[in-house]
Amino acid sequence: MSSKLLWQIVLSLTTVVPAAMAPGAYAQFSDPASEPLSAMTVPQAQLMQPAELAAMLKAGGAQQPVMLQVGSHVMFAQAHIPGSRYAGPGSQLSGLQLLEKAVALTPKPKLIVIYCGCCPWNRCPNIGPAFQRLHNLGFTNVKALYLPNNFGDDWMARGYAVAKGE
What we know:
Layout: H1 3-21, E1 47-48, H2 50-59, E2 66-69, H3 73-78, E3 85-86, H4 93-102, E4 112-115, H5 127-136, E5 142-145, H6 151-154
């Protein structure tokens, strides 16, 4: 290797490396809008308690909500709320696309209840993005089923109705 080429490499490293190590240098590669939204971002007024949804479902009638499970398909197949549809994991782009398809024919003011139950509420990666996407699509009556621990503890163990399979 020629000394001129070696000198050019050294010179370029002395300018590039310190700049790359500067605080916030990684910011050019990260998009704050793509950061995951926690379930904790859902406003308190938009949360629905399990007992409230169970009573609504038991009462029946024309005012039944659209219910969408926005977590894992494996969990949905194992147990889900009767009448709910699988709408893809809210934490993944493919899940948000499936969610959009699931609500494509739904009137904007219709009550939509989303739920996951994969893990404790404060760690759920699916509810926040799904909730935000529905609002971005113009839905005005979206509620998130508040399952503080998980679907098993907060829905099944309380004796609320459960369906299994696709």
